[in-house]
Design brief:
It is a single chain. The protein has about 325 residues and is an alpha/beta fold. About 45% of the residues lie in helices and about 20% in strands. It has a six-stranded mixed beta sheet, with helices on both faces. Helix 2 links the parallel strand 1 and strand 2.
């Protein structure tokens, strides 16, 4: 196939979104947060009686799926009373993060976050970060897989890397979001390729990334395993390596680390709460998450969504979040963004 013109991230410092956008952002989150605070005050101290689960994205995506699976597990097992899932899409999840950061002391509301939102904060120079919320627990992780079209000349990861090293811009990569690009960049570093010289075609989801591979628009992709599992099983795509610390149960794909490339950036999912909640409320929410992940409904969700359980809470979680922020910021610097 012909090689498209190399596309590189802009160099220099990341530029924040225009001030007018953040001004609109502030009006929206403050206005909605006021309504949430009134409801919280009316319901009293039983925070499990009437809860709100926020997903910082539209319906159907990974964050939305996580929150609705949690809603199903909690209501089916009477762990909570009434639960509503509220979608707060926009700006790579930072609109949702902004909303929950303004819901001071409302322990009846929680939100899912993850590596993609840490990336969104960094990429957009968001005025809010995970320092502005209360971490509760990391629950699961998802991993990317390196895939190529079925008719690709590359049958191994070393074959792909050999050509990539010769001419970093000649291999056109794609993926379903900013997280996938971060995995590609970490893989580039492990393969001794300059991430700033690579060619990357962004897409809004795993389906579009798959289509780009099949039509020959892209040569390779880093994509969430669940997003391309059907295409791998059907033979339309070839899996060359899993970006995970170890192999996934029931998945016969060797890891990149096994093949000599240390890449294990995980697309983790965690729960956060608003700032200003009490220690007792924080422990109550932590216990709710612990109870949730023990339910049969949640275990079924883990299997169906190809999640890997990796629970973490307390001070270790806060350390993890700080380390992830440093790691992801470093990858953006390597990309020249």
């Amino acid at each position: 196939m012909s090689t498209p013109t190399e596309t590189k991230p802009a160099t220099g410092q990341r530029r924040p979104l225009p001030l007018v956008i953040w001004a609109i952002f502030a009006v929206v989150v403050v206005g909605v947060a006021t309504a949430f605070s009134v409801r919280a005050a009316e319901q009293g101290e039983d925070i499990r009686a009437n809860m709100t689960y926020l997903a910082p994205a539209g319906p159907g995506g990974g964050w939305d799926t996580f929150m609705r699976e949690m809603q199903q597990a909690d209501t089916s097992n009477n762990l909570v009373g009434n639960v509503q899932v509220v979608n707060v899409p926009g700006a790579a999840g930072t609109i949702g993060l902004g909303r929950i950061s303004t819901m001071e002391g409302d322990a009846s509301s929680i939100m899912v976050t993850g590596a993609g939102l840490v990336a969104g904060v960094e990429q957009l120079n968001s005025p809010v970060s995970h320092d502005d919320v209360t971490p509760i627990a990391r629950v699961v992780e998802e991993y990317d897989v390196v895939v190529v079209p079925a008719d690709s000349p590359y049958d191994s990861i070393d074959d792909l890397v050999a050509d990539w090293q010769k001419d970093p811009g000649s291999i056109v990569w794609t993926g379903g979001g900013s997280f996938d690009q971060l995995v590609m960049s970490e893989f580039a570093l492990a393969a001794e390729v300059d991430p700033a010289k690579t060619s990357y075609l962004p897409n809004s989801g795993g389906g579009e990334a798959t289509q780009a591979l099949i039509t020959g628009t892209a040569d390779a992709a880093t994509s969430g395993y669940q997003d391309v599992a059907d295409q791998i099983e059907s033979g339309r795509l070839k899996a060359l390596g899993l970006a995970a610390p170890q192999r996934m149960d029931g998945v016969d794909i060797s890891t990149l680390s096994e093949q000599g490339y240390e890449v294990d950036l995980a697309n983790w999912r965690a729960i956060v709460a608003p700032p200003g909640i009490s220690d007792e409320e924080r422990e109550n929410l932590t216990e709710l998450v612990r109870e949730t992940i023990e339910t049969p409904e949640w275990q079924n969700a883990v299997d169906r969504n190809s999640w890997t359980e990796n629970y973490l809470d307390g001070p270790e979680l806060e350390t993890f979040l700080n380390d992830e922020r440093t790691r992801i910021a470093g990858l953006y610097e390597e990309m020249g963004v």
